[in-house]
Amino acid sequence: MKTILIMRHGEATPMQADDAGRNLTQAGHDEAEKMGLWLSKAHCPDALLVSPYIRAQQTAAGVAKNNVFKFSETTSDIIPEGKPQIAADYLETLIATHPQCNTWLIVAHMPIVSYLVDQLSPGNMPIFNTGAVAVISYDEQTQRSSYISINAPENL
């Protein structure tokens, strides 16, 4: 069994014309570091898949302060308007080709994070607060997933 952790980026600056260039606020940086510490204790992620948008990259950097990744990649498949089927297929391919990685962290955005949970575990589409992490158990043999929980910085 593998674990898939799907995380929404931390709190970001307000919407602007260049959505990809939005930065985290100080609260967003704090959320990323708090969740990174929790992840290191609760799940020890060893693989990272992150959106190229600045706020997701900054969130991943905050999480990385307390975690070491054997595999890390930036992909446009998980930007806000990304296609969940493509993202799920790509993730499953990466899991199959990197058997040394047991816990995969995906750092992305609304609404793709909710749609990706539903794609992997149909019928489960949680709404993510900023910095929240959904936990999914994934059986690589059957390619079936089970939604476990969602954890937000304000609840830790």
Give a description of the structure:
This protein has 156 residues and is α/β, with parallel strands linked by helices. The chain has one domain: Phosphoglycerate mutase-like (Rossmann fold, 3-Layer(aba) Sandwich), CATH 3.40.50. The protein is built from four helices and six strands. It has a six-stranded mixed β-sheet. Strand 5 (133-139) and strand 6 form a beta hairpin. Helix 1 (26-42) packs across helix 2 and helix 3 (84-97) packs across helix 4. It is globular and about 40 Å long. The model has no long low-confidence stretch (mean pLDDT 97).
CATH topology: Rossmann fold
Low-confidence runs: none
Sheet-strand content, in percent, reads: 15-25%
- CATH top level class name: Alpha Beta
Taking the alpha carbons of the first and last residues, their distance comes to 25 Å
Let me know the largest β-sheet. 6 strands, mixed
Indicate the multimeric state: single chain
The CATH architecture assignment turns out to be 3-Layer(aba) Sandwich
Spell out the CATH superfamily. Phosphoglycerate mutase-like
GO molecular function, one term: protein histidine phosphatase activity
Protein name: Phosphohistidine phosphatase SixA
Organism: Pseudoalteromonas distincta
InterPro entries: His_Pase_superF_clade-1, His_PPase_superfam, SixA
